Amino acid sequence: MREAGAEVVLPTRFGPLDAAEMLKILPGVDAVLASLDQYPAAVVASPEAGQLKIISRWGVGYDAIDLEAATQNGIVITYTPGLLDEAVADYTVALLLSLARRIPESHAAMAAGGWKRNWGHDIFGQTLGIFGLGRIGLAVARRAAGFNMRVLACSRSPKPEAVKLGVRFVPLDELLAESDFVTLHASLNPGNRGAIGEPQLRRMKPAAFLVNTARGQLVDEAALARALREGWIAGAALDVFGEEPLPAAHPLRSAPNLVLSPHQASFAQETGERVSQAAAEAIIDLMSGRRPRQVLNPDVFQSPALRARVEER
Predict the structure, then answer these.
(1) Which residues are 209's β-sheet partners?
(2) For labelling alongside 176, which of 71, 220, 263, 306 has CA 20 to 30 A away?
(3) Which residues are catalytic?
């Protein structure tokens, strides 16, 4: 960004930042390379954001941004689809393996000076249920094939490639009832918020495990904490939460048979460099009069409210 002539301003702390924090740092800013920071209508339509021309999202999730309000106010929203898929899929499988084979427990015991062996569970030949078979879910399905897993999926749009892998598409209830492991990869929308609640957790096998590397709001966290304490399911691994950072007193922090991770599934060095480069290039393109490649609200280029000067609309 500096090589392109931009003045780079860093916040006092890295995000995600809430709406109140964003309002403090947006005055005089032309572009933002964004984390999971909050951009509701009250922020993008505010006087503080009056100079803002682009929000370039590092990653693929954009539920924290009000796209309609951004378009109405002439702000371009970009993201970086496809670049995080393999890293997140790798991490999903890492969590699944750690959880099933009880690796964190064994490490903790040895780090404390002990020597305690823990019986875990097989992954090879087991049934994996994937909720949301988009790019990342499909990447997980490819990895599951190497473990000779039977793969079930619940998705809005079945993909031909998944069928070639032997994936069988089923309703969510059937997926939950038959799977030994359930991984979540759906993007968050009003229709699936809290999709995994008490009724769904009770449909899972008592020996089954849940892994979430998608969005925390897909899961009813209070119900999950209770499920783990009362043994409705065998365990869970979470990289995402409804509130981040996870509050110190949150009931999940003390729930048994749970692996917690601080939203770092995409934090692979090589992937991070590629995503950062792409997010920065989107800003440079727009500020240089070019249309960025991955735009979430393309209608903005037909809007008289568009704040940036673009050579071709």
Answers:
(1) 181, 235
(2) 263
(3) 215, 244, 263
